[in-house]
What does this fold into?
Amino acid sequence: MQYGNIDFDTYLKNYPDGEGYFGKYGGSFIPKELQEAMDEITQAYFTICKSSKFVSELRRIRKEFQGRPTPVSYLERLSGKLGNVQLYVKREDLNHTGAHKLNHCMGEALLAKYMGKKKVIAETGAGQHGVALATAAAYFGLACDIYMGAVDIKKQAPNVARMKILGANVIEVTDGLQTLKEAVDAAFMAYSREYKDAIYCIGSVVGPHPFPMMVRDFQSVVGIEAREQFIEMTGELPDAVVACVGGGSNAMGMFAGFLNDPVEIYGVEPLGRGPALGDHAASLSYGSEGVMHGFNSIMLKDENGDPAPVYSVASGLDYPSSGPEHAFLHDLGRVKYDVVSDDETIDAFFELSRMEGIIPAIESSHAVAYAMKLARQMEKGSILINLSGRGDKDMDYIIEKYGIR
Ligand SMILES: *Cc1c(COP(=O)(O)O)cnc(C)c1O
It folds into this structure.
């Protein structure tokens, strides 16, 4: 399918280019020592991850350990309530550990094993990426160092406990604001010291090349499965596909399956409390071009041009930029990016729980909220939502902040 001047028949093979660029976005903006390590990962990715041995081992792990393929469910009662549009969800909430993140963590950790590395290193904010990576490290018998801000460690006690039970080393970062940004810096520092024995595992389709490509490719299993399942269930393609966008990995995985189809694609960003800077984390909707964390993309900046403080009710969406491929698809117009507020999100959280018996993650509830709005506008057709994760991790927060409705 041709879109703009891009041929989507060959898109996934041609983007990013050899330097990691999606148009002007992406690339690798890191110190020399780290560039050597990234080049080693890129090299290993193209030789090891494309080998039939790696591919078949990852397939077996997905089936036997992760529980893939995850199903697609038809939302019969919610669809009926909203009108004539049929809603479906891809159930990444049923993936082992309760979200899509394990899809790329298992891939990254399997690559580490093939490369002969003994350790995986990462940062985590809310702890979801740390838990997924600690799970993968335990499965493969790798050491696991997770860097986490001291403030986040206090806020996310259950995830810290999970990581420790899984055998990971949680390393407290006490610089600056003691949250995600400082944790990223500390993890990169550690990696530049240890890259001979360790591999850095990023948590989304962000960071320097090859991570945005590699994480997309590992996550594309979501979109590939969902497309096949949807056609088998209904005999046709969905009219629209919807996913929430933080860094953008669950969305890119889903979108990868449908970019070459006549399907409307929507990425949903968190509007939080409103459009004022500091009240939301909708980087593609309100941001501008800039470099952070080693890549060029669209980001939210403060008055000095540094990454701005951001806010969302969903801690997994609380990031001042998004992956470079989203910035590219945004400019191209192939994917439409829009926002939903905290309030709309919490309504959708309860709606899906009560109407369908599925408690969604607050992140995923953004996609559900947007699909519900879209369903009210469309006269007919179908919408496939990527339900990136389950809401068990959010229940205490919801009860405390919103109570039972
Ligand atoms: C981390 C997380 C997200 C956001 O990350 P993306 O890279 O944007 O997918 C979304 N949903 C859930 C359940 C998460 O844990």
